[in-house]
Write a structure and sequence with these properties.
- The chain has 251 residues and is mostly helical.
- The chain has a domain of 160 residues.
- It has eight helices and two strands.
- It has a two-stranded parallel sheet with strand order 1-2.
- The protein is flat, with a radius of gyration of 27 Å.
Length: 251
């Protein structure tokens, strides 16, 4: 025997209760695992039947909505007259708003591709295997990394499209800082800082919730928040020439 507590010799037959022990099974014990049988639900036909009923119900509801309410369609398209502004469907307005700030390859391919790739890869990183709170382990080291990444990203979004940036690249026109992406980034960063100062034993339920969120949650939340803000701006705050207008001013 050593001083390590990873393995302890003993006589037991419950592998779930003592997963880290070396168990010697004698004639008076058995290798049977003592565990209660959990409730089970068969995929076929129970779950499949419920899914089919839900799909059919949703289809009927959508058909009735289509029969009762007319779709908000405009007139027939006129090839000789392009509306100003020509807006994409609402689910593409976030990307169209990004095109206002970035080149097409960056806005349409690079940024969405990197975010989706990060959401696929991050769950396999060691930092996220146990799905624990981001700052529950190695707090100081992770805080340093977080401050570096959040500060660098915020500084980039603040200076991007600035007069200095336009002067370096020789771009003419009025500088328009990327506030649409900067504000959500600052809000999510503030929540992450609050999470770093919280613990699972905090008296506030909200702070306990933040303390237990893993890295993938924060990346996905930032991505969705940015998408919602950009989509809302493209829908309500963009007028002729994709200029900024207030909703009550019309487009």
């Amino acid at each position: 025997m050593t001083d390590s507590k990873d393995f302890i010799a003993g006589v037991d037959s419950n592998a779930k209760k003592s997963p880290r022990r070396i168990v010697f099974i004698t004639r008076r014990t058995s290798a049977q695992v003592k565990a209660e049988t959990e409730d089970q639900l068969q995929t076929f036909p129970e779950v499949l039947l419920r899914a089919a009923v839900a799909i059919m119900t949703l289809a009927v509801v959508l058909i009735w909505i289509a029969l009762l309410f007319n779709a908000p369609l405009e007139g027939l398209a006129d090839p000789s007259h392009t509306p100003n502004p020509a807006k994409a469907p609402w689910y593409f307005l976030g990307l169209q708003e990004l095109l206002h700030y970035f080149p097409p390859v960056v806005a349409g391919v690079l940024i969405p591709g990197l975010v989706v790739m990060a959401l696929i890869v991050i769950p396999y990183f060691k930092v996220n295997i146990e799905a624990e709170g981001l700052f529950q382990k190695d707090r100081e080291k992770r805080l340093q990394i977080f401050y570096s990444v959040a500060g660098g990203l915020s500084l980039f979004l603040l200076l991007f499209k600035s007069r200095l940036y336009n002067a370096v690249l020789g771009i003419k026109g009025e500088a328009e800082p990327l506030y649409a992406a900067l504000v959500p980034t600052l809000i999510i960063s503030g929540l992450m800082i609050l999470a770093s100062k919280s613990s699972p034993q905090s008296p506030s339920p909200f702070r306990r919730y933040l303390a237990g969120r893993p890295l993938s949650f924060w990346v996905m939340t930032w991505f969705l928040f940015e998408l919602v803000v950009l989509t809302a701006i493209g829908t309500f705050f963009r007028g002729p020439g994709w200029a900024w207008v207030w909703p009550w001013q019309g487009s």
